[in-house]
């Protein structure tokens, strides 16, 4: 087993680089998505779209960082363009708002 020691700054840099790579891949995939996809997503679709857990998505919703909408059949829906904007803001290191 090999042990590697990193300073807190080095760890922060490494994690930032890893997250940048993952966000870049995700945004590339999202931009390549067909424009005919539905604008409003169900909770399950939003989870898959953002690659988040349900508790994390609900936390972002509670905090007002991601907006949600109620449909006529009482389902919670999320607007695809708003989710994409949130991801883009997160990738830029900004403070995403819903």
TrEMBL record:
Kindly name one Pfam family recorded for this protein: HTH_17
Boundaries of each Helix-turn-helix domain copy?
40-89
Organism of derivation: Hymenobacter nitidus
What is the protein's name according to its record?
Helix-turn-helix domain-containing protein
InterPro entries linked: HTH_17, SinI_DNA-bd
């Amino acid at each position: 087993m090999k042990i590697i020691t990193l300073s807190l700054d080095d760890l922060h840099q490494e994690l930032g680089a890893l997250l940048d790579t993952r966000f870049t891949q995700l945004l590339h995939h999202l931009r390549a998505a067909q424009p005919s996809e539905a604008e409003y997503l169900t909770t399950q679709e939003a989870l898959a779209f953002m690659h988040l857990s349900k508790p994390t998505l609900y936390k972002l919703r509670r905090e007002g960082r991601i907006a949600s909408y109620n449909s006529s059949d009482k389902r919670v829906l999320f607007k695809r363009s708003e989710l994409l904007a949130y991801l883009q803001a997160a990738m830029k290191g900004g403070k995403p708002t819903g």
